[in-house]
Write a structure and sequence with these properties.
The protein is α+β, with helices and mostly antiparallel strands. It is built from two helices and nine strands.
């Protein structure tokens, strides 16, 4: 019985080590400059952060990320909501919260470049800017 429990525990630990860790979700508060519909994607370009207020663009695997995109092959309602929220943010001057998975390069399949773009996993418009002080 003890051997069976030890064997089961060893299998569980072994399986746990074989499962890759989940991607690290990152939220970034972006002041959008533009929303653009391109051949394979819709993206939002973020304005550079103001000096001494928010630091820099978010960094992911050594790259500064300033574009956040959704593939045009996604659900049309999801794309439409993304464009609407981005347009509201731009016209009202409000920031957006954009969530992406750190180290996720799936966007390269539809033109989101590894060096400056990430796929949006969630988005929201914020009432006011939340500006962390360094």
């Amino acid at each position: 019985m003890i051997r069976a429990c030890a064997l089961a525990a060893g299998i569980i630990v072994g399986l746990g080590l074989a499962i890759p860790p989940a991607a690290l979700a990152v939220d970034y508060h972006c002041v959008p400059l533009e929303v653009a519909v391109l051949e394979k994607l819709v993206h939002v370009e973020c304005a550079p952060p103001a000096p001494l207020t928010r630091g820099g663009f978010p960094k992911d695997t050594g790259h500064e990320i300033r574009f956040f995109a959704i593939s045009l092959s996604e659900n049309p309602a999801w794309i439409e909501r993304f464009i609407q929220i981005a347009n509201i943010a731009i016209t009202s001057g409000r920031p957006m919260r954009l969530s992406f998975d750190s180290g996720d390069y799936d966007g390269e399949a539809f033109g989101c470049l590894r060096q400056d773009c990430r796929t949006v996993k969630a988005f929201a418009i914020l009432r006011t800017a939340i500006v962390p002080v360094p």
